[in-house]
Amino acid sequence: MASLICGSIAYDTIMNFEGKFADQILPEQIHILNVAFLVPTMRREFGGCAGNIAYNLNLLGGDPIIMATVGNDAGPYLDRLNQLQIDATHIRQIEAGFTAQAMITTDQANNQITAFHPGAMNESHLNLVSAVIQERTQSAKGTAKFGIVAPDGRQGMWEHCHQLAEAGVPFIFDPGQGLPMFNGPELLELIDIASYLAVNDYEGEMLSQRTGLSLAKISERVKALIVTKGAEGADIYFDGKCIAIPPVTAAKIVDPTGCGDAFRGGLLFGLENGMDWESTGRLASLMGSIKIAHQGPQNHHISKDEIVSQFKSAFGFAF
């Protein structure tokens, strides 16, 4: 069973400054700020919400279909997806632009300065859900039974939510860092046509402020509302109740980048396989725990059998 993943594909360029920003920035001269940081180490990671979610769903043996836009520099990323046997048929290449890129500099105090270039991501609305459904229906691969709309270009997020709803494909609305691009009435419209809603606790607070509704009230408008809380696990609201999903202790804490996307990969696998919310939430929590023990969003290499074993060890039963 396949899941259509609408969202960003991006490169993350991560640099480390062997000092503290605070020692280089003079508060009294902030109005004429002009600083440079020597960054002796740098690495480039494959990232973006759609890429990260698909990577984790693929680890679980799911069938992710990525729908995204990339630039003329996307060759290495597309080669990687091909090697992973992740369906990239519906990734559109925009020759006139760059793939979305985040350039992140971290100092010794773990403060970060990030510059984000959306690039081809702003053209995501050029992709159509109907094209995916038509292509998959005509092939032997089978069409998408679930979807997710993750952070992407604003127009793309808006149109893909409506297109999935019109096609009758149940989907998760995952506004993430794209949430501030929508006002309260717009958010309520997208929530009302979504089947499920996923946010972290900070985004949940922002969502409540923008819509004027409590999370409990918002949950009444979808089949399930999932609120992740980092090291404290997650809450899942459904059928008029709320269950607490416990966190899974990580082998080590290395890098939180992409943990939310790993969690969402677990959610999609649970939905694809008809798992109950308790099991789905626990699997999603485990995926986040596995990811945080590795540097970068897509560097955790683990087999499904190993995931099954870790799940049973953590919770005492198999999924």
Automatic annotation (TrEMBL):
Keywords: Kinase, Transferase. One of its GO terms (molecular function) is kinase activity. PROSITE patterns: PFKB_KINASES_1. Residues 34-299 form the Carbohydrate kinase PfkB domain. Signal peptide: none annotated. InterPro entries: Carboh/pur_kinase_PfkB_CS, PfkB_dom, Ribokinase-like. It comes from the Bacteria. This is Adenosine kinase. It comes from Polynucleobacter brandtiae. The lineage of its organism: Bacteria, Pseudomonadati, Pseudomonadota, Betaproteobacteria, Burkholderiales.
